[in-house]
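haha ok so turns out i had the wrong file open the whole time. this is the CORRECT one, sorry everyone. sequence first:
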Amino acid sequence: ITCVRPAEFGVALWRATGSEAHVAALEALAAGRGWTLSARRVLDARGEAVPTPDESDVYRQLGVPFVAPEL
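then structure:
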């Protein structure tokens, strides 16, 4: 069980369900922009947390289209 604040849920879900390669690719994309994808948060270039209450918010903040997972 992982417990996170509502504003951190998107990152927690993304990390828990994404493949290792996909997570690494988005971490590299974020780093290229001076951002950080920590275990629970997206941090902008100033080190400030960016709210990601939904998994799609992680992608939106990085400028990547979100594709909903198939059920």
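Residues 59 and 66 are 6 Å apart (CA to CA).
again sry for the mixup
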